[in-house]
From TrEMBL:
It holds the Pfam family Glyoxalase. The lineage of its organism: Bacteria, Bacillati, Bacillota, Bacilli, Bacillales. Residues 6-130, 151-268 form the VOC domain. PROSITE patterns: VOC. This is ABC transporter periplasmic protein.
Length: 314
């Protein structure tokens, strides 16, 4: 049976690009590994944040657009995105969130303690301590590798039809069901990052796409050959996948599972160093070849942004 290693990336929608960078780079300490544009709507940025190299399983991406309406988190969406931090670092993160004036709470799920908080646009985030995942060597602001976010722990899916999403995770993507606890059903993929997926069994209100919501969740394919096999499997299972699209840093295909959530399958290669050195990732606006002729126009219309150490860390 074909199996995914887990989450490749998660993409979300927000309003303000600089505020987004200040939070994910300045507060959470993730690296801006790619500053490019939305290939489908190049008048807006597409920003990628991850570990020091943008390894699959660490990358959250954003479509910032100031004019988009506020969304509503609910069914048909990824409701919560969670990250792994090193064992023993939760107190550091509590202190850091307090320093930046970010409200947080804690909860326990399947024996693990989660630190819960929202980003400035309302996306729901969690931090959880685990041994899994390699240390993130990217140091920024007040965060060093002993406390740095390693990558995704996983996600909580808010499905409109939880039993159908369960069938997809088990019988198509190849995740193992670990059991149920109260209103959550837990699944595990084989990878070290982004491998724990919880489905909420009591669906909330219907989700509305907009700022502060996840647009899609992407699953890992080993390479282009594996990607082709995934597409054939999805066609055979009548999920109507899109054509394979070139996103420069990975190949992608999309489909909706029956719980209403937009899924993507993305290739691990070629990665974010395909068009710039690892040492300078995220410093320059990178464009695909078919948009390079519009660079001057895009650089004039896109708002200026920068990765900066915030006042609280100076």
């Amino acid at each position: 049976m074909q199996k995914t290693a887990g989450i490749h990336h998660i993409s979300a929608m927000v309003n303000d690009a600089q505020r987004n960078i200040d939070f994910y780079a300045g507060v959470l300490g993730l690296r801006l590994v790619k500053k490019t544009v939305n290939f489908d709507r190049p008048e807006g940025y597409h920003l990628y944040f991850g570990n020091e190299t943008g390894q699959p399983g660490t990358v959250i991406t954003f479509f910032p657009w100031s004019k988009q309406l506020k969304g509503r988190i609910g069914t048909g969406q990824v409701g919560v995105t969670n990250y792994i931090v090193p064992i023993g670092s939760s107190k550091f993160w509590e202190n850091r969130l307090e320093k930046f004036g970010i409200e947080f709470s804690s909860s326990v799920r399947f024996g693990e303690r989660y630190l819960k908080f929202n980003d400035p646009d309302g996306l729901q985030l969690e931090l959880v301590e685990r041994n899994e995942g390699q240390i993130n060597r990217w140091n920024f602001g007040g965060i060093h590798e002993e406390n740095a976010i390693k990558g995704f722990g996983g996600a909580v899916l808010f499905s409109a039809r939880p039993h159908k999403t369960t069938e997809m995770l088990e019988n198509v993507l190849g995740l193992e069901c670990l059991g149920q606890e109260e209103e959550f059903l837990r699944f595990k993929a084989e990878g070290q990052l982004g491998n724990i997926i919880d489905i909420m069994l009591n669906p909330s209100v219907r989700g509305l796409m907009g700022a502060g919501t996840v647009h899609h969740i992407a699953w890992r394919a080993k390479d282009e050959e594996d990607h082709q096999r995934w597409r054939a499997l999805l066609q055979n299972k009548v999920y109507y996948p899109t054509e394979i699209l070139d996103r420069n840093y990975f190949k992608a295909l999309y489909f909706h599972e029956e719980g209403g959530i937009l899924f993507e399958i993305a290739t691990d290669p070629p990665g974010f160093a395909v068009d710039e050195p690892v040492t300078t990732l995220g410093n320059k606006l990178m464009l695909p070849s078919w948009l390079e002729s519009k660079r001057e126009e895009l650089e004039e219309t896109l708002p200026p942004v920068e990765v900066r150490v915030l006042e609280e860390d100076k």
